[in-house]
Amino acid sequence: MLGSTRGLAESAPGVDAFNLVDKFDLLTSVSGGGWFLSRLLYSRTFLTLMEMMAANPSQASKNFMKGYMDGWLQKAQKSARPYFTGFDSALQFFGGVAAVDTVYWGDYILNSGGWSGYIANLLFYTSGGDIDNTTTLGDALPWANGKTWLACHSLVTPSPNGAYQSASLYAKTADLLAVEAEEYLYTLNTSAALPPYTPARFSVSLGTNHTKAPVSYTASGALPSSARGQWLASEMYSTIAETDTQTLGTFDMFVDNARGLPVNRVVAAASAALGGFIYTAAGRGELEAVVKVLLDQKVTNVASRFPVWAAISTRDPFEAAETIVSPIIGGYAETTVETNGQLASNGVLPLVDGGYTDTCGIGHAVSVGATTVTAFCSLSNLQLLFSSAKQDIRTFATYFQAGFVPTNSFPIFDFEDTNYGGFGSAQAYAEHQVKTRFVRVGVDPLKFSANITVGTINVITKSNLWFGIEGGKEVILNIISGGTAPVLGVGAFENFADFSVGLETIVDDLASAMGTSSKGTRMLQSWFSP
User: Fold this and answer.
1) What is the pLDDT of residues 365-423, one digit of tens each?
2) Do residues 310 and 317 lie in contact, with contact meaning Cβ atoms separated by under 8 Å?
3) What are the residue ranges spanned by the domains of the chain?
4) Interatomic CA distance for residues 359 and 377, integer angstroms
5) What distance in Å separates the CA atoms of residue 500 and residue 242, rounded to the nearest whole number?
6) Distance between CA atoms of 377 and 28, rounded to whole angstroms?
7) What is the pLDDT of residues 322-355, one digit of tens each?
8) What's CA 332's distance to the chain center, in Å?
9) How far apart are CA 263 and CA 39, in angstroms?
10) pTM (predicted TM-score)
């Protein structure tokens, strides 16, 4: 939406399309939002596509399919196994084109070697080749000069005294007992009771020669200074090795050479939505069952292919980790003391989607000093930033995806009215404000998209160790809600062409609205006008 809003500014009196984000010093992205923001930052081809769609809303769907969707869908289909065409026909019969798109997408991920390879291909083919393996965070387009980008993600932090003691890189099940007989497990060697995930961010000063990251990788004090990773190998149900990594410290491999980090690996880590499945045997089993049924493949250690693995001991953290991890998850070899030692000596650790800790990127923005935040965020995700009960002193809460995969929320906001307008909790009061004070932008019915609504909420920060946020500071939240996500989600068992139709209706509706003086358009213009 940022791209189309940028282009649509040409329809708004007094707003220059090329200066639309001039007033913003900080850009944050979470999950799939990083796919689009990275292309706006690093792909002139994609930037031109967005401006073309905004200039001609009635052709937005056609142009988006041609310039974005077709390239990687065709690549996915061509990469599928030879006998897949027959399976394609069966899926068309049972589930239509939506099922076919999803299966091709899943097969493409596995054929790419996992999430990192898939995102590298996705960015390459949807950017017209502008973003490849050599594109680094220091290669941004001139329009972004002077801004800071935070690619928000989550550091997997199991701990012996936490709710989750370990995460699994590798698990081999004994055939007769259906018990995981051989494993490589990861934990943090610390006495602190940590949340399953700790908020983290890659950061870069765009358009400068600053090599070092402008902000810390994790909040100061979020992790104990003495914390170390620990790798454990088991064989036939017995531990054969237990080896510590070096001290995690300040994650220098992500900070000291931020400009040199590869864009595709950074974006992959920040969007690794299935990465949390490494936490539970049920999660790992479900992914392997889905792959077996839908893709007719027996793939080992499916869950381990969805985080992005990094090594803390080198300036090339992603390549170093992949060199060690890929052979492990590629087969069912026996666990060894030597391999466990490699994992530990290189400080290999898993990174997953930012949505496991901060679904809107708002927490990270506030943690580095932002006092006015304009964010694309749904009501359900916004509510996670507030406590669900009065006098709730918890600094994080854990809920679950698919019934068993842990996800964290961090209540970082409160209201000046501690009675919450009589609604019982800050979370309920936030919902009330969204439903009663937010206004719609545009009037036309949208296809495959929720209505675009906008509104402002004034909040007070709550002290939060994990984000490094001090309590008692006033923050203004300008929220833009809606879009295709509430209707189409991430696209699983949806017709991918529907995203193009949905986008066209959004662009067309916004273009019409920009020519009016409705409250919603006035709010948008005030938020984005320099």
Assistant:
1) 999 999 999 999 988 999 999 999 988 899 999 999 877 899 999 999 999 999 999 99
2) yes
3) 142-355
4) 8
5) 50
6) 12
7) 999 999 988 777 899 999 999 999 999 999 999 9
8) 30
9) 10
10) 0.90
